[in-house]
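Researcher: Next sequence.
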Amino acid sequence: MKKKLVAAFIAQMLGMLAYGELMMTPWGEKVTPENAWREYPRPQMVRSNWTCLNGYWDYAITDIEKTMKRPESWDGKILVPFALEAPLSGCGGRLLKPEEYLWYQRELDLDPKAGERILLHFGGVDFRASVYLGHDEVSNVPHSGGQSPFTLDLTPFAKKGKNTLTVLVWDPTEAFVNSRGKQVFKPKGCTYTRVSGIWQTVWLETVPEKYFSDYDVVPDIDKGEVTFTFKMEGLTYADAGFFGPDKGSLCITCCGKSVSRASFIPGKSVTVKLPEPLRLWSPESPALYDFTAKFGKDEIKGYFAMRKFEKRKDAKGILRFFLNNKPYYVNGTLDQGWWPDGLLTPPSDEAMAFDIQTLKDCGFNTMRKHIKVEPLRYYALCDKLGILVLQDMPSRTTDALSPYRWDATKPYGFYRRELKDMMDNLKKVPSIVMWVPYNEGWGQHDAVLTHSTLDFIKRYDPTRLVCGPSGWQDFEGGEYFDKTWKRKVSEHLPEGECEAGDVVDYHYYRGPAMPPVNSRRVSFLGEFGGLGHPVTNHVWRYFDQGGIHGKTNNGSWGYGGITDTSTPDGLAKTYKGLIDRLIPMVEKGLGGSIYTQTTDVELEINGLLTYDRKVLKFDSKFLKEVHDAIYRRFEESVK
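Model: Next structure:
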């Protein structure tokens, strides 16, 4: 049976390829139902007793108005964790409509035991998911939010032996309160194919009655200390510290050797001194510490890093970014994180590592993760390979470019909930050094609510900076567009009055350009470049009722056209020209810059790499030399 399913999956992929509908990465070409995402999905909170539920599930799509009960027959098999619309799902590029339900079903073999809980984890489901075990809905409230993971306790509903797991998904994509990032019904410009349903790993864990649910970790490199706060479920009053509690144990290791030990009480902070010499994390030296935490019968393993990222004045009194108490120039790319075969879901660990390592080989030290939340394994690779991450919040809409639109205020409460969920999910990731809650006014709120959001982030996570906002609608000393779409510059707030953002962020294509140096926020170029360069036979093509598009260069685009960048030599010359104009800005006080972008994405051909990752358009050594010139001039300018 398994051989037949694999054969059917491969046949379907080849059939799509023959019609010109499918572009594959080298890693996507190797995906099968047997090997699709088998790694443990949560690297900073690892348990040994787990079961991966990725693979083939039954699926069905039903008209909402005609749906009277759960499906009795199924449309076919879908390969989890790839979304319905992703080619690797095996569903032929089927697009979910807002008036349709998407159903999933599979069998689970469960063995509930006294003193144990059975947890079901979803890494990501877009957008709303109702989960059933047998007849029973597992949660009181369906999960809403395509970017955030969630966990359900199956224990009260599980029976020994075969259990039927059913997931009901609704995804409106556009014109709703949800964050959808760059998903649209019809791809155009810088917006892309919609994504519906399960798009990250699904897995089971068996845990004891008292188990770790999460933890916080805060490093302090100046004191050489790290503070943990472990959160647990199933505790009694005694466990919580009221009547002589049991204590948990914490062991920190480095390079396989134990360096510190401590005991802790759940819910209470414990600070641990680390031995000298302290191993600091940076893109140039991504040192990590490992740990094991135990409480009762539960045990988790994870890692953390000792690093500090802040804004401070350099020797000349100019605000700069500082990493580990030293001035640091942030040099990165806009990284969309889209894949032609998996859409929002990367094909594999190897595929993700390739993108990150390519940036490092080209001399970048940063990526701006643009309007997307990645699987946790992606961030673990950023931590281990060493690259700074500026993390965007996926926007609610790409239509409300102006905060003067009154409807941008309607989803504000849900936006804040999703923003907090994202921060809670990623707060332990050491490579993330700045939050980016707004991009170019997309779904941005009015000046009052924008300030409230930025202020909340700084208060909720004082260990990171906040970009506020990135491009355009900045009412506290940055650029904005008025009601007539004239570009203007707002005044900084009076000294002593809270100005929530840590950076003033300009977007200029091709650019470069820089915000004026000021005493409140770091001058930052959040997007520039976008040099278009098509590579024959590596331009995305998609299929709709009008036929195949993008077969040549039709519909593909780059900022400023491709007249001077149509050849590799022209592309390299133009890029070096951009950097030559950037370097004097670095000397004047520019704190960082983000080039658009890591890869081509669908109709965009602005990438260093083609969308299928098969062609690097530049020589990596050339790029590294160009970027090394930035770093040298930066080091000279901050002395």
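Model: Confidence is low (pLDDT under 50) at residues 14-20, 399-404, 542-552. The radius of gyration is 25 Å.
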